[in-house]
Design brief:
Blueprint: H1 10-17, E1 25-30, E2 34-39, H2 40-46, H3 51-56, H4 58-96
């Protein structure tokens, strides 16, 4: 029997990749309902920035609020990964010198 790995969503992958940062807060301003603050972990669990917008304007909420946050979190992970690799390379260089 074939072992089929369950396909992870982008949010699930980011939750694993950003596991050290899930407690960090994100603050942004909803065009309709003002300032919103939430943790990375809560956002990745429910993909909600503004409950009112998600209920009344779900497509707008997804396009204008969720998508930019997901993009920013992906960039955050890539930047952290780049810094980790640079730090590792620097420490290996110092050890071999």
């Amino acid at each position: 029997m074939e072992n089929v790995e369950e396909k992870q969503t982008k949010a699930q992958r980011l939750k694993l990749q950003l596991k050290e940062s899930l407690h960090e807060e994100i603050s942004l301003s909803c065009q309709y309902h003002g300032p919103k603050t939430f943790t990375i972990g809560n956002f990745l669990d429910n993909q909600t920035v503004c409950i009112a917008c998600k209920d009344k304007l779900p497509l707008w909420h997804a396009d204008q609020l969720v998508h930019p946050v997901m993009t920013a979190l992906s960039k955050m992970y890539l930047e952290e990964e780049k810094e980790r690799k640079q730090a590792k390379a620097k420490s290996e260089k110092q050890v071999s010198a």
